[in-house]
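Lab notebook, page 48
Experiment: co-folding of the full assembly
Goal: obtain a model of how the components sit together before planning crosslinking
Operator: M.T.
Materials (sequences as entered):
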Amino acid sequence: MPLVELVTGATAQSTISGRKNFPKREGDSSSIQRAINRRLADLERENYNDSVKIEVPKAEGSRSSGKSPAVRRILVSKKTLSNLFDDDETGTSEFYSAAVERSRYPMRHLCSVCGYWGAITCIRCGARYCSLACEDTHRETRCLKVYA
Amino acid sequence: MPVAGLPRATFIIDNGAYNIKAGFATNEVPSVIPNCLARGRGRQVYIGDEFFTQCKDFSGVVFRRPFEKGHLTNWESEKAIWDRLLFSNEVGFHVDPDETVLTVTEPALQLPVCSSNMDQIVFEEYGFSSYYRCTTAALVHENETGILFGASGRSDTSLIIDSGYSATVIIPIIENNVYYPAVRRLNVGGKLLRNFLKETISFRYYNMMDESWIVNEIKDQCCFVTTSFAKDLETCKKLPAARNPLALDYVLPRAMASGIRQGHIRDKALPSDPDDQILTLGNERFSVPELLFNPSDIGMRQAGLPEAIMQSISAVPDADVRGLLLGNVVFVGGNTKFSGFRDRMSTELRALVPDDITLRLGFPEEPITYGWQGGAKLGMDRTSLQSRQVTRKEYLEHGPSICMRKFGKKTVKVLENNV
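Observation: model returned without errors.
Model output:
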């Protein structure tokens, strides 16, 4: 998934570059941002194939479980983290308020293909690349596949 | 002299999202076992350490973890792992909960319901005689941290940075209590680094999206933190792999039949084996751990770890306390083991800290077990542990709320007076 820098003011009369009819991004900014978020969520996954279910094996001679109703409820609970966040607003806001904030320094841009400095921005999707060779790879693989 | 009626054994569990470090306080070192269920290609499910002792083929293994984004949400799986840890013959602890004092760690910013669930399982399901729940940072703080700074003893104020699987958390401990208003969480952990490496390798070289375990091994063996990112990036760009001193050939592990489970770095001096499948790594070696210092490289809107440390420090209201914290910084967690991490962190942090403040950074020899070691040390100090723990009798009398009260957030007096 590409690294994207949002260019503001990509309208027909742009004074920034001095050109009129500056070409507009093909993917719009909200779908580009959604793609970034989706990629970051993918990077948080445990397994590539999300629908994998691993059953807990029943051990022979295991100690009796669920001695009290409270414990039985905890053990069979299928609540995921998002369910638990929904249940507890204060806890959730405390958790998120402790997140580290943005850096004071400007971000740097790396080529989404080879990892070198990404000086050139793709006109269509906003991803970065460093050279014509990487541009070719980018066009063939990741460009706009995401925003279809 | 043992007092009649008091339990004798103290068992410490540093319950990490990736590994559990567990053992009796009297053990020299803890047992380190994976905190997950693993399933290999053959549909066989391995619990905890069974993954190392029984799994023959590390390729295509999928994992199920009790933790989700740094919260212990799934007790069905955690109980299976704990049952094996505590009672199985293979692991060999044979814990008798009735006669044991338990110390367990939890993540610093965990949802209260997850902590409460653990309290109930410990007392009502396992029936431990008494129990203390705290953050790993609190146990790290129990060590004689002075040794890390070339001194002795320990301070009652230190800044613990725990960079583990789920995330990197910065925890200021002031007068022996965690100061929650300044705790900060950076969402870069071992899991993100592994997945980023997996995504990069799969895009540039071989598709390894199903090979979480093998890529994790590659990350541990091949990645390092650079002190000069720009220079190394140029080296990798300008020189072809054969002449690039930073490029590395990694021999991927072979299929099941050969019995070779582990990959390794190719020794260029030896002749190459034509059956080997080689993965050549270049700038990935340092651009992956670089995310700890520049999360914005992949578009994350968080500052890097040195700047995040300053964000945490600036949330502490007292200037003297801030100085004390920066004079006692301890780094634990698997991600601090990357070669070059120490130098890079020292350089960047020194640049951000005012020069009238003495900065002392501590890197324990064993960053993964250092928390457990602190727990073992605390476990041997019976009076100290007794004052913090909740006994089964107290739990049965007052219910789970007593745990929430006793293990919950404490006010820090020195800051209260000054405010």
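Interpretation: The beta strands of chain A are 120-121, 128-129.
Next step: discuss with group before ordering constructs.
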